[in-house]
């Protein structure tokens, strides 16, 4: 437990240092005008998976908003989790129905992480993007990250 606390503490120091060194941490709005409109009701499944335009927008939105913590091209330097690993447990599933269900669960987890941010013991490890991101922006970033495979 103590070890975990210490690890979290040093992680926080690193994240704080990184945030300061990168100056502006205000979430940047994402132009999604070229994507189909999804409405206000949050979807539970990424509707843009494999959509080229969504991937293009997602790559730029990722670089502006996520890369400083999660790493350029989604290769984590260890400060924040490596997001290429999110689907790893699903990809090994042989049953296509179970695999789709697993990726759907990760879609929801991803969406909720971006909307809510990550707060540990009252400290903000990751800001909430709920005020600036439409769901189109969230799914575009998810679609981009899904093109980045851990074992490539
Ligand atoms: C200020 C640094 C920071 C920024 C900016 C940031 N994150 Fe994070 N993110 C973190 C940290 C640290 C964690 C791990 C928190 C924890 O241990 O609970 C995390 C966790 C996550 C998780 C859960 C990962 C897992 O394996 O459980 C997702 C998904 C995620 N971030 C997506 C994003 C996306 C997408 C963006 C950009 C829109 C973003 N983050 C921006 C620091 C950041």
TrEMBL record:
Q: Which domain of life is it from?
A: Bacteria
Residues making up the signal peptide according to the UniProt record: 1-21
The record's PROSITE patterns line, in alphabetical order, gives: CYTC
For the Cytochrome c domain, which residue ranges apply?
53-149
The record's listing under Gene3D superfamilies reads: Cytochrome c-like domain
Keyword match RNA-binding: no
Q: Does the keyword Metal-binding apply?
A: yes
Record keywords, A-Z: Heme, Iron, Metal-binding, Signal
Q: Which NCBIfam families match?
A: c550_PedF
Spell out the protein name for this chain: Cytochrome c-550 PedF
């Amino acid at each position: 437990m103590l070890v975990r606390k210490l690890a979290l503490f040093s992680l926080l120091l690193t994240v704080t240092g990184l945030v300061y060194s990168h100056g502006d941490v205000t979430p940047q709005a994402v132009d999604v005008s070229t994507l189909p409109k999804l409405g206000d009701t949050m979807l539970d499944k990424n509707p843009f998976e494999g959509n080229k335009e969504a991937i293009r927008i997602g790559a730029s939105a990722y670089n502006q908003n996520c890369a400083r913590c999660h790493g350029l091209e989604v290769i984590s330097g260890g400060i924040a989790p490596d997001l290429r690993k999110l689907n790893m447990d699903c990809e090994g599933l042989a049953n296509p129905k179970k695999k789709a269900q697993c990726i759907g669960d990760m879609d929801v987890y991803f969406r909720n992480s971006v909307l809510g941010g990550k707060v540990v013991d009252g400290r903000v490890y990751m800001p909430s993007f709920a005020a600036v991101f439409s769901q189109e922006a969230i799914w575009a970033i998810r679609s981009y990250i899904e093109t980045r495979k851990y074992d490539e």
